[in-house]
Amino acid sequence: MESSPKLITRFAILIILSLTLIGLDTLHFLAIPKKAVLTLSTPIEFGLYSFYQNTREKFGFLGFWQKGYQELAFLKQRNLELLTETELVQKLKEENEILRNQFATTSGLEANSLVPARVVGYSRFLFLDKGQKQDVKVGSVVILNNILVGRVVSVEGNLAKVILPIDLESKIAVITSKNRAKGILKGAFGSLLTLDEILQSEKVESEETLETYGGEYFPNGILVAKIKKITGDPSATFQKAQAVALLEYDKLTMVFVKVK
Amino acid sequence: MFLLFIILVFLESSFLSVNLLLAAILAAGMIKIDKSLILAVFFSGLIFDILNVRLVGVTSLFYLTLCLLLFLYQKKFKTKNLFYIVIFGLVIFTIDNIIFKQNISVLMLVLELLGLFSWYELFSLFGDRKKLYG
């Protein structure tokens, strides 16, 4: 066994080395070695993530609830599609009346600025296989079927880290699609979210969808969640509501990143 | 040991939410700390940072500091005192969740503690440390 002073010296050396690396990375001097590691690791990560998704799917089929599981998944998917379609139709009508020129861009997002990206990892954040090389930048918006997936918070050559609306650090300015009540959507982990800071004078209903509205990060009109139930004290300054995300983030395999 | 750490790094970067890497490092550190372990901790921390798009060196620094603490209090763990293992594990997992996840979930802490026990038992089972560390 090694003597204590010798081992403590090794600790000291490695700790100093770690601090040096932190300094170098802050100054972006580690871009090349990071790129090399990511080039090798991204396919492995994608393989593991796909394996995880496939295994989960297979275990779902093996269960005695097989039929119910399939039907539920189908209905959920169909419900989501209908919800999106209804919103799109509604939006088209409004836009046609107000701005004829914009009816083709239903959500305000231009198709040619969307980069398809594969999901290579999901823990607290979502990891995508597209990065700086494909013009993905910190702040780029990630969507799927005009539903918000999140926002890129850090990016490397071929990897992007996306913060999800359900993250505790996430705060999104939203508006309800029917009554046009404004509020702030905050993450609460799981698939639940909290809709806060809605004025008492505003009307909100359960099952109403929420879409982005202003703020520095997101363009207007991207669907995010739907209200599950209204909570909060009526005598308080603001109303509160519990919302549920429209996407199951842990099941995503492909998304689109909006690049300018 | 390094190979195990690397596998855990990849699993955590792909889909695993429970920090089994930290649990494995703690368990291995509670049993014996030597040169090969601290090198494995250092390099797996670096790879973890790169794969998770974190500032390179942050995780290594955190894990090395933990190992240093474990080394300084090694006698306490050598007694295999369950109390020390639970308290130390709980404190470390809580700090890790606060720093890197900004969230404390009781379920996650329980799972991580279970992971710590499992690794500890597994590493103890392979009592011949030479086999583990070469």
Please give a quick description of this structure.
The complex is a heterodimer of chains A (260) and B (134). Chain A is an alpha+beta fold and 260 residues long. Chain A contains 3 helices and 12 strands.
Describe, in plain words, how this protein is organized in 3D.
The complex is a heterodimer of chains A (260) and B (134). With 260 residues, chain A is of the alpha+beta class. Chain A folds into two domains: 8-62, no CATH class; 107-260, Beta Barrel (Thrombin, subunit H), CATH 2.40.10.350. In chain A, 34% of the residues lie in helices and 29% in strands. Chain B has helices at 2-14, 20-31, 35-51, 58-72, 74-78, 82-101, 106-125, 129-133. The longest helix of chain B is centred in the C-terminal third of the chain and has 20 residues, at 82-101. Chain B has 134 residues and is mainly α. Chain B has one domain. Classes of the chains: A alpha+beta (260), B mainly alpha (134). The A-B interface holds A 1-2, 4, 7-8, 10-11, 14-15, 17-22, 24-26, 30, 34, 37-38, 41, 44-45, 48-49, 52, 120-125, 127, 154-156, 159-161, 168-169, 189 and B 10-17, 32-35, 38-39, 42, 45-47, 50-53, 55-58, 60-61, 64-65, 67-68, 71, 101-103, 105.
